[in-house]
Write a structure and sequence with these properties.
Layout lengths: L2 H8 L4 E3 L5 E3 L1 E2 L2 E2 L16 H4 L1 H31 L5 E4 L3 E4 H27 L17 H17 L6 H25 L8 H4 L7 E2 L9 E2 L2 E2 L1 E2 L3 E3 L16 E6 L9 H6 L2 E5 L8 H5 L5 E5 L11 E3 L4 E3 L6 E3 L5 E4 L8 E2 L2 E2 L5 E2 L17
Antiparallel strand pairs: 1-2, 3-4, 5-6, 7-10, 8-9, 11-12, 12-13, 13-14, 14-19, 15-16, 16-17, 17-18, 20-21
Length: about 375
């Protein structure tokens, strides 16, 4: 062994054993290493203004109560807006343009209600709740009986630390804010399960149930016995708005359809959605249901596009299997058997729209659907 090797070996850290028998490095390059590092401890606690000044604490209390009060006011306004603003009322906003006033009112008031509770809780924690640093030593995961018995005391001490007992203004304002905040949630839950104002008939009908006026050569509606002459609505391409002739519908073709005369400026968007129809041509001998065959023409049939599960648009057609697919939750309908459900969460077939052809060869709907379209509702029956 050379001298260089001896020098290199001498620089290796020496190893000794402590009282517990564990190896401890004692030197490295002739510098001793500590056996353990000392606990640096916690920095000195910095007291807040409210900790020593009762006037400042009361000021913080009033600020927290004000935020909770703002939340209560916004919740009340939410309920008022829900009951007063009509479903067809609109408002024009920057960037967004024309939007439903009810949606804006509910969104703003609910946001302010939540913000008031959140900011109030944060300000309460920052200014009044105890912020003393606490160190908890590790212990056995399963608490012993004494620790469990002490749990109630710890929770009680926590309530005292939060000053919830000393600050009744905060206690009552928080209770009011949280209590009222449950109202919009319950209102949305109950109101969302069915028409809140009893407007059930709107769910039973679509624009296919109404007719359009017959126009004369001068472009004005024809009159008979002082009343406009009307006729059933034709099937129009969506979004082109052009009428569909029976000769346009070749075998295997698919048309997305809206009723004649629909106008975005006159009819709400929900009317357009409810009246959406898919028109498909298949071999007539593949249709197994007699009624479905009779309500179509030469294998051309029309069905509502609104899924009977949660109202998504059923717009995917598989020509080989003659299946209609809802892309939202994969409900699948068999077009050869009156669109009965063969897979997925939907429980009812898609409603069929009876179609016919007029003297000019255009497809039209003699009447509307024989049942409400879309998902179920309480009064459906």
């Amino acid at each position: 062994m050379t001298d260089d090797n001896e020098a290199s070996i001498s620089k290796e850290p020496a190893v000794s054993h402590n009282e517990s028998g564990h190896a401890v490095a004692t030197r490295h390059d002739d510098h001793a290493l500590p056996e353990r590092f000392e606990n640096p401890g916690l920095p000195d606690h910095v007291h807040r203004q409210g900790d020593n000044d009762e006037a400042a604490a009361r000021r913080s209390e009033r600020q927290v109560a004000t935020l909770f009060g703002l939340s209560m006011l916004a919740t009340v306004l939410f309920v008022v807006a829900y009951a007063v603003i009509g479903k067809d009322d609109n408002v024009t906003l920057p960037i967004l343009g024309k939007v439903h006033a009810l949606h804006v009112a509910l969104g703003v008031t609910l946001a302010v209600s939540m913000l008031g509770i959140g900011l109030g809780a944060i300000h309460w924690a920052k200014t009044l709740m105890s912020d003393e640093e606490v160190v908890e030593e590790r212990h056995t995961l399963r608490s012993n009986d004494d620790a469990r018995a002490d749990f109630v005391k710890v929770m009680s001490d926590g309530a005292d630390s939060a000053q919830i007992k000393r600050r009744p203004l905060i206690k009552y304002s928080l209770g009011g804010a949280l209590g009222l905040f449950a109202v919009p949630l319950g209102l949305q839950l109950v109101g969302g399960l069915g028409p809140f104002k009893g407007d059930v008939e709107d769910l039973r009908t679509t624009l296919w149930d109404t007719e359009v006026p017959v126009l004369g050569a001068d472009g004005k509606p024809e009159m008979k016995n002082g009343k406009p002459v009307t006729r059933p609505r034709r099937l129009m391409r969506d979004p082109d708005g052009t009428a569909i002739r029976l000769s346009d519908v070749t075998l295997g073709s698919v048309f997305h359809v809206l009723p004649e005369g629909i106008n975005d400026t006159e009819h709400p968007i929900n009317q357009k959605v409810k009246a959406s129809v898919i028109l498909i041509s298949l071999q007539e001998d593949r249709i197994k249901n007699t009624r479905e065959r009779d309500w179509g023409i030469n294998g051309v049939v029309a069905y509502s596009k609104i899924c009977t599960h949660v109202g998504c648009s059923v717009g995917l057609y598989e020509q080989t299997t003659h299946h209609l697919l809802c892309p939202c939750h994969q409900s699948t309908f068999d077009l050869t058997e009156d669109c009965k459900v063969i897979f997925g969460p939907a429980k009812r077939p898609l409603p069929q729209l009876k179609i016919d052809v007029d003297d000019e060869g255009y497809l039209y709907a003699p009447h509307g659907f024989d049942q409400p379209v879309g998902p179920s509702f309480w009064e459906r029956g």
